[in-house]
Design goal:
single chain; 38% helix; 2 domains; Jelly Rolls
């Protein structure tokens, strides 16, 4: 199936679509100072036709600086591409991208000491723990972030040619909204299956990979149109966008006392209804959720063995070591010092 040509696209968009169809190297100059080891070509693995092009042959991919700080493996196929980018050192690393293709980032793991993430059209985020988050930068939108990593970041990037969407949807449907650090279980599940499929040496055929790619596009379209999630929401709970806004705010203000009224205003609810809806969605009241997130962050800091128990407690907003120790023990069943000893 060949991709249709949109007469009204810019020359850059046309060049990009052609490159994704043919594996052409004529897109953009990549600024990496070394090549990432590619995955085995899909078709070579399954004996179907000509080998698929490695993503390393596609110039319009996320730029990483310094390139030596990550390893990259991936594949491109019919109007789409995917690559897994794994940080290999604790050096500061910067990621940037602007291209006529859509970009979906799925962060599998990663906690940063400091950092900032930006998608054109949205406010910047300094979220520390990016694990299990998704980011979407529509074609033409700038994506940029930097990490001073506490734990090594692993992210799968999916590149989607807008022309491929034209095969399934009308032109208006390709106008996507930017999204930064959101959660969607259905999209996450499809993205995980797709990554596993292109990496597995036991992959049966390329059609399965292409089918998952189509499913991913459908899920992004569903999200973009504001359709309800396939999973049944808990009756009376927060909507998906409300959950996302509240949890992101809490994570970015862990060391602060957060008034319930502030959280309720963020999601346009009364304080009373917000408390009920939050507990329905997360199983615990907002204050307890905030405490749990503090303790999870405390575990990360303690595991790094660079700060004392007192320093960690103060960094997370506890005024006294005794109150931090009591809260940590109540939540985990261990004291902070005992937790450190258990790590060996």
């Amino acid at each position: 199936m060949s991709l249709p040509t949109n007469k009204r696209r810019s020359d850059a968009m046309l060049m990009n679509s052609e490159a994704l169809r043919t594996g052409s190297l004529a897109l953009f100059d990549r600024d990496h100072d070394r090549k990432a080891p590619p995955l085995a070509p899909l078709d070579a693995a399954i004996g179907l036709g000509a080998p698929a092009q490695s993503i390393d042959m596609l110039s319009a991919t996320v730029s990483v600086t310094p390139a030596r700080a990550v390893s990259r493996r991936g594949m491109e196929w019919r109007g789409m591409g995917a690559e897994f980018v794994q940080a290999t050192s604790h050096d500061r690393v910067e990621y940037s991208f602007r291209s006529p293709v859509h970009l979906l980032a799925a962060y599998e793991h990663g906690v940063r000491r400091e950092g900032e993430s930006y998608v054109e059209g949205l406010c910047r985020s300094t979220l520390r723990d990016v694990a299990n988050k998704l980011t979407f930068a529509p074609a033409g939108h700038e994506y940029r972030e930097w990490h001073d990593p506490r734990t090594l970041t692993g992210v799968t990037y999916f590149y989607l040619d807008p022309a491929e969407l034209q095969t399934e949807f009308d032109e208006d449907a390709t106008e996507f909204a930017p999204r930064l650090f959101f959660e969607d279980p259905t999209i996450w599940s499809t993205a995980a299956k797709l990554k596993q499929a292109i990496q597995s040496p036991r992959i049966e055929n390329r059609l399965y990979v292409e089918a998952l790619g189509v499913v991913l596009i459908h899920e992004l379209m569903r999200l973009n149109r504001g359709a309800p999630r396939e999973q049944v929401q808990i009756r009376g709970g927060l909507a998906a966008w409300q959950e996302r806004v509240v949890t992101t705010y809490i994570d970015e203000h862990l060391a602060e006392q957060i008034p319930l009224a502030t959280l309720a205003q963020l999601v346009r609810l009364s304080t009373y209804y917000f408390c009920r809806a939050f507990k329905q969605s997360f199983g615990v009241p907002p204050h307890r959720y905030h405490i749990q997130r503090r303790i999870e962050q405390a575990k990360i800091l303690l595991a790094g063995r660079k700060h004392s128990v007192t320093e960690v407690g103060l960094a997370l907003g506890f005024s006294e070591t005794s109150s931090f120790t009591a809260t940590f023990r109540k939540t985990t069943g261990q004291t902070p010092s005992g937790y450190c000893r258990s790590l060996g």
